[in-house]
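Work Package 4 report. The design task specified in the project plan requires that, given a folded chain encoded as structure tokens, an amino acid be chosen for each position. We show below one input record used in the internal validation round.
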């Protein structure tokens, strides 16, 4: 398992820190946790192959945790991605992303599969033969 902190501790992009995003590589999976503004630039600097990212987890709908997501999805489209992209996040993530795609007249050739979460208790949200991922509900202002 390898966790790369792409950004933390910044509600806005700064000279020496980025908005929230972490890259988790575990048992053959490459997963993105949060996607603040500028995440794809940091992924490029790290040499990450975008096609390997199949699961993106958005912790909550504060901008510093997801404002980079629409840009990343758009870039995936420009790069002719064909693999499905699973997006896990709070209720509303599907609406906000689909609205941005609609009004920007952006189209993607891959399926966006949304997993909207609203449980107040821990729940299993991803599982395969190697990995289990569960939510950890928190109260965040």
């Amino acid at each position: 398992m390898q966790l790369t902190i792409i950004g933390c501790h910044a509600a806005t992009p700064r000279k020496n820190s980025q908005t929230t995003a972490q890259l988790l590589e575990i048992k053959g999976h490459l997963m993105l946790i949060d996607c603040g503004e500028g995440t794809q630039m940091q992924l490029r600097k790290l040499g990450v192959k975008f096609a390997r990212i199949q699961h993106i987890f958005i912790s909550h709908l504060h901008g510093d945790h997801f404002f980079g997501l629409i840009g990343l999805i758009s870039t995936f489209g420009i790069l002719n991605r064909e693999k499905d992209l699973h997006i896990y996040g709070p209720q509303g993530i599907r609406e906000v992303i689909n609205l941005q795609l609609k009004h920007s007249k952006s189209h993607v050739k891959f399926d966006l599969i949304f997993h909207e979460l609203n449980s107040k208790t821990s729940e299993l949200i991803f599982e395969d033969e190697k990995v289990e991922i569960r939510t950890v509900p928190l109260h965040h202002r």
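The helical segments are 39-46, 63-66, 69-78, 93-103. Validation will be extended to a larger panel in the next phase.
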